[in-house]
Every structure is written in structure tokens, then in C-alpha cells.
Amino acid sequence: MKVKTIGNAVVVGFCAAVAVAMAATPAVADPSPVTNYRTLAGTGSDTTQDVLNGLGVAVEGGATIASWDARPQPSTIKTKATNCTFNRPNGSGAGRQSLRASEGEDLGGTHGGAGFYQGANVVGCVDFARSSSYGGGTNPQNTGSLTYIPFGVDAMTLGINVNGDLPRNISFAQMQRVYRCFSTNITGIPVQPRMIQADSGTWQFWTQRMQLTEAEIALGDYPCLATGSPVTPVLPRVQEHDGTVLNGNLNQVVPFSAGQFIAQSRAATIQAATGVTVADRRGEVYLTGLSAAEQPFNRTTLVVNTNFTLRRDVYNVVPTADLGNAEIADTFVGPGSDVCSATVTSGGNTFNVVELFGFGRRTTQVAPLDAACGYDQLRFNS
Question: For helices 49-58 and 258-265, what crossing angle results, to 10°?
Fold first, then answer.
């Protein structure tokens, strides 16, 4: 294990004086400067881009992890000193595709052939992918060319407009009925579901739990989401975890990550602690509970509920063949790995980086899809 701590971590309510004292700390999103290529380059999930930026600062004094954000779109990134300029992957699926192409795989379609991602040769350009979903869905496997290594626990729920009349607690059954277009209202209040980008791990997780598929949407089976031929969304797809899409839209709903909501709520204190810029995109969003007794996070302490019904592990994905690489293993594998144990400190207190950025951290193995941080036996081929 090779972890360095950095000073001035913050918790909820940390005093404004520290924010002033740290004002000179440079903002961090993509590696800063962008020519700071570091050892391991990663792309993918919007959900976990911020926490990986924080880990990029904390692990090995900023020498190991270079994580490239999912946004802004469209744009290009350059992940290595030689070649490796390509379109910025947006979402878990796109990040995993770039990793597979980096390993020399042929993604088919219009990518351009073996080792190409969206027309660019990316062989050797990506070392890991951020993913907020498991590619194998709800059926865990222990064989495959990619290994999904969990590092945090998230809770997913519906985001509603805080100024609207939709209830603050919406049951799992009600959510399913809305997204499967069986209901156009909740407790008599009209409701319009929104879709997010198809390459998103969040959308993959959400469609699985709502029991619908992209193929069914494309066939027009869910007219509240998309209609027509060619199929046209009722409302445009939106970027995940962006509550501003609900501003002024009192009856629209969208799936939202509790981990992202917590990190966005702590944007100022996270930047004061680490220099990482978390874009506050909450807008007018409110994250609903499933009932009065089951909430996605503690609204006072901003701690995610790791037992929430709609919980999910979030992952760093590496080629299974690279698990024997010491840098990969030290960084990602096991509860003592750099990612699982990275800390920041303040006032004599030490805080785990994953938890600071809004995610839970499971230290006891429950099941492959409810795994301990650093578990390395969950695999799939895409």
C-alpha cells in the first residue's frame, strides 16, 4: 500500500475560514496540468469522476491516477504523452469501450477496427474505466476479460422538483409504474419521466431495476419515454445527476445518485480540502425516499444509506490480465489498496476520501454485487 494523506480535509459544516485559507489551491478536474499524464489513465462514469479526481490527488501525492472527466461534451482528451488523443468518453459504457479498445479489441460498428475507439487508435491509452454499473447486470460472473473492482456504495432514487407537489417519498413500485408508463401520475399529481444518456451506467442500472430495456424503448413500447418511427424521445435525454434539468419543470422526474448529490452539496468544502472542483448541478432537485423510514441518505449528516433498496456498488474496471501488475494491484485491489484506504486529514481527524465524496464504503464481503472494497473476483467481457 502506498498512500499519502493530504491536509485540510473537511466534513459537513467545516468552517469557512479554511475555505478562505485554501483559496489559492488550484482547481482539479482533468489532471492539472493536462500534460500531467501520471501512471494510470482512466475514463468513463460521470457518477464517479469527482471521487476519482479526489483519489488522483490523494494517492501517491498525485503521481498515479489520471482520471479524465465525462464532461464537457463534446471534446477530446489526450491521456498519454505519445499519441492517445480521442473523443472524451461520456459514461460507464463508453469508458469500458475505450478500455477494451486500448487492449486491442475490435468494438465493431463505426469505431474503425481493432484498437480503435470512435475512429481513433487508442491502443495503450487507457488503463482503467470508471463504471457505476456492472456490465453483467444482475448475474455476477467470476470469469471475463474485464474485472470490476468495487470501491464505493451508492444509492439511486428519483429526483423531483423541490417546488412541485409530487410526494417526498415514492415507493419502488410507484417508480416502476411511472417508468414503465403504467401510471401518468403519483397520488393524483401528473408526472413525466426523463431518460439520461444511453452509455450511462446509471441508466443501465435504472433500466434494469425498472425492468425495461433500450431495445424495448427503441420499439416504442414505452410511449411516455419515446414514440414514433424513427423513435423520438418525448423529452430529450439529459446528462446524469444534473438537477438543473428540473428547474421550472414541476412534474418531471429523473434518476439521481445520492453519492453525487452529497458531493455536489459539499462542493465548496471538497475544493477547500483537495482542490477538486465538483460542479454543483443540483438546481431545484430533491431526492425522494422510498418511504418515511427508508431514505437514500441521512439528510442531516449527508451519509449515504448503504442498505437502501436501490443501492449499487461503483467500480474501477481493469483488464483481468493486468491484475498481476503491481501498480494496478496496489492502487485498486483489496481493502488496503490505495483507493480503498486513501485519506485526507483535518484538525487531527482523518477521513476516507471515498466517503468524503459521498459514497459508502463496505468493509465486509456480502455478495459479489454487494462486495467489500477492493474485491477482485467480479468479471465480465464488456
Answer: 60
